[in-house]
Amino acid sequence: MKLMDEIWQKAKANRKKIVLPEGEEERNIRACEMIIKNGLADIILVGNPENIKKMAKDLGVSVEGAEIIDPATSDKTEEYAKTLYEIRKNKGVTLEKAAQIVLDPLYFGTVMVKLGHADGMVSGAIHTTGDLLRPGLQIVKTAPGTSVVSSAFIMYVPGSEYGKEGLLLFSDCAVNPNPNAEELASIAISTAETAKKLCGMDPKVAMLSFSTMGSAEHELVQKVRTATELAKSQRPDLDIDGELQLDASIVQSVASLKAPNSAVAGKANVLIFPDLQAGNIGYKLVQRFAKAEAIGPITQGFAKPINDLSRGCSAEDIVNVVAVTAVQAQ
Ligand code: ACO
């Protein structure tokens, strides 16, 4: 996919350091070799160095050039425990508890990112989305001016006339079950930024609903309307509009009838779903019925990038998510 080539080129041009906390896992070890060989990022593998080197040897791959850090023996572990304690003491975490928690590679990697010892983190080949996001939400937290961490899918429908030559961003399809209007506004702004940074798009953001510009009245519609107003007032420089039905968002002839004065209707390339049920179902419909390529979920809104993998991922998928994370860190 051309977009992924562009993301690789961006990652190579300004190399960042990415931590892989699942360092003792086969696909991560294979990915590490490919990432270093292609110059996409500098890599830190978290795990026991002897185990990792033995696994690499057995797999016939090299982890040369990667830094390997074991929380059990690292001289950084005490500092990381203290950092964790300082951040979470108001939530009842004691220093002793922090010393235990930080031995968990996901927490160790997250503190590493928090302190700037790594620029970003990728995990999830053997952990759930919640396992990965929770330490990130607790420790790295949201970027200034962003109220929620959310996610975006880059959807590519070959040959489609919609979006930017078949390329659209969908959000939020993976993190926030039921965002309120303020959170929905924040998700829209984050996704517009992701569209610019990762895809080089001029974002046209549609706030989706079952109503177009007042055609229906319901509290669910009102939420989207309020979110649209908030997002527009916070970022008047962005093209954001709503509430819009899906067809009015992307089909010019429908837009001309239903929202003739909108700068977004008929041209949307960023689709913001009102909640996670709609978003998660929506991206999977397009992926299956339109045979779209779905890259993601790409996490957005963290102060420093942390990205999730599917547990069914391949080593090549890990390489691509590392490239995306490296570009987000730039
Ligand atoms: N943005 C910012 N902060 C957040 C967010 C968010 N979206 N969600 C929770 N937080 C904060 C909380 O305020 C809390 O902060 P505090 O501890 O400092 O007070 C901290 O993060 C932990 O919050 P919890 O409520 O304990 O976390 P929770 O158990 O709800 O986990 C999670 C958060 C994992 C994101 C949860 O919302 C979730 O499971 N979402 C759905 C994930 C999912 O199943 N997706 C569908 C599958 S993915 C797919 O199909 C591609």
Please tell me about this protein's structure:
It is built from 13 helices and eleven strands. By secondary structure, the protein is of the alpha/beta class. Helix 2 (26-37) links the parallel strand 1 and strand 2 (41-46). Helix 1 (2-13) packs across helix 13 and helix 6 (105-114) packs parallel to helix 7. The longest helix is centred in the middle third of the chain and has 19 residues, at 181-199. It is globular and about 65 Å long. The model has no long low-confidence stretch (mean pLDDT 96). Acetyl coenzyme *A (ACO) binds next to helix 7. Acetyl coenzyme *A binds at residues 91, 129-130, 133-134, 137-138, 142, 148-149, 174-177, 280, 297.
> The biggest beta sheet, please?
6 strands, mixed
H/I helix tally: 13
Q: Give the beta-strand count.
A: 11
Question: Under CATH, the topology of the largest domain is which?
Answer: Rossmann fold
What is the count of structural domains?
2
Along the chain, the helix and strand elements come as HEHEHEHHHEHEEHEHEHHEHEEH
Strand order of the largest sheet: 8-7-9-6-5-10
CATH class call of the largest domain: Alpha Beta
pLDDT < 50 runs, ≥5 residues: none
Q: What is the radius of gyration computed over CA atoms, rounded to a whole number of angstroms?
A: 21 Å
Terminal residue distance = 22 Å
Structural category is alpha/beta
Principal-axes shape call: globular
Which CATH-level-2 architecture of the largest domain?
A: 3-Layer(aba) Sandwich
